[in-house]
Amino acid sequence: MDVLSFPWIDFSVAGVVIGSIYALMAVGLALIFGVSNLINFAHGAVFTIGSYIGWTCLMYLGLPLWLSVFVVAIGGGMVGALIEWLAIRPLNRQSRIAPLLATIGVGLILDQLVHIIFSATPRALSADLPDWRVTVGTGTIGIVDIFIFSTAVVSAGLLYLLLFKTKIGMAVRATAQDDDAAMQMGVKIHAVNMTVFATAGALGAIAGLLVGLYFNSIDPVTSFNIMLKGMVAIVIGGMANVPGAIGGGLILGLIESYGIGFFGASYRDLFAFAVLLLMLLFKPNGLFAKARERQAEPMTGTFVTQSRPFPIPWWATALVVLLAALLPMLDRPYVTQVMTNALIYALAGMSLTLVAGTVGMVSIGHAAFLAIGAYVSALLTLAGLPVALGLLSAGIITAVLGTGLAYPSFRLRGHYVSIGTLALGQIVVLVILNWDSVTNGSLGLYGIPPLEFFGLPLFSTNATYWFVLAIVVVAGLLQARLLNSHLGRTWRAIREDTVAAETYGVASNYYKGLAFGFAGFIAGIGGAVTAHQFSFIDYNTFNLLISVLILTIAILGGLGNITGAVLGAVLVAALPEMFRVLAEYRMMFYGVALILLIRFRPQGLLGSG
């Protein structure tokens, strides 16, 4: 579209309106981060709950809009307070990364509850507002636009009064500046944290209602995506900077609106995550940071609990492998298929436990490695390359490309590492979605050749199982050899104290690259096997929930523990398949498992490596 003929006013109004909603989300995230040094990944679930409370008030009970907004704020505040009380407060004595992972589990549980109560079907949402628009230049402004912007401004004003004109607000600001000093001065830290979570929950819930009014519908699957938009906004404005979060939300809204106008709606999310990555690389403290903003500290090594791995004799491992090889002899094809899927997840778990457990870089977008491997092998074999070479090529290309994509996160510190890997994972998915000429876009790739090894067919249930089992055994032995070498000791040194390791001459980025390269090779092969096993993949095959599932597997078995990754994969991926009557509760099961593990067994079932 020509710049001169572009309808700037219309898209500017749309950008300011949606940016106001992003600002409400971002303010809540910034409040929590400023006081608790925590990124609340459950904030998007509170947003969804707010939208459905609003639907209940407006469409089911017929309440007036002003009262519905008040009820939504109260409901969101209560949910936020419960999150702090039940999931965050018990982890106060844990490492700093533990509460972050706990909020991921809480988000899964809350999203699943919404699905169960209201179903996954989107619902129409509207309010009894006059249908008129004001003409401004060549554009128009509607009553809904004015209401959304006004609600955001009023909410920001009330937040200002709370923070700067009340005693609890003074306590919140004191805690954000120095929680230890505030505690010594008699500030009740738990009450402050609960107040902050309740306030953030109220703002997030109101944002959920406003988005529903803006698009005239609500959808339970939007929670994590909108939370990520709030996260982008606080990175733009400054992680703990509340005024900056408002500015960041408005900037993001305008960037998205103009991007949609010039390139189309399918690029909306790609713009957001590209901006996030650029901010993390070049100005991680945000556009509105103070001149002497404190730099984030490294978080490598802050989650792995010091413990001795559970000793497993070599003969016991060999016996288990032998029994696993005999599983197809039971003539239970369904069980064999389930265990094949579990072994593929084991490959992903092993690759993540290397970078997150051994090196200490918690990756929340690890499914991107599987997606790259799946598409590489599928495209090459569809072009005529033998499947065996396609699998090998998938591993090599994923190792190279995955390391290159993850390299920018090597220089990040603190929570920015998790945010950066999450952004990279989403960018890979969005590139797959929008690169129609290569990936076939949203239609996906179909007719992918089945598994075979230089003419030897492997597409039967038993043959596929034995083939994947062999890959798992070989990958496990190779990874164990690496961990017991000088390279493995160097990785663990980086995990325990990056600064100390660099002081002794360790090139941490080089060794992180080696870890991601090996992890990408293993995960890429796992993704490729999945593509050939099912003969179809699309951009949603390896979504964010798969990344969360892989993370749960790694934590369940024990970060850095190879055998634990296999055990975790069997428990997390296989057991729910055995109870398919409870399939709709599967994600809730993952969320509960993640929270319980972090709370009571952070070192995993077999201990951290």
TrEMBL record:
Gene Ontology CC terms: plasma membrane
UniProt-listed CDD domains: TM_PBP1_LivH_like (cd06582), TM_PBP1_LivM_like (cd06581)
First-listed, main subcellular location of the protein, grouped into a coarse class: membrane
A Pfam family recorded for this sequence: BPD_transp_2
Entry keywords, A to Z: Cell membrane, Membrane, Transmembrane, Transmembrane helix
Ranges that cross the membrane: 12-34, 41-61, 67-88, 100-121, 141-163, 191-215, 227-255, 262-282, 312-330, 342-375, 387-407, 414-435, 463-483, 514-536, 542-575, 587-606
Membrane topology: Multi-pass membrane protein
Single annotated GO MF: branched-chain amino acid transmembrane transporter activity
Localization per record: Cell membrane
Protein name: ABC transporter permease
Species of the source: Pseudooceanicola lipolyticus
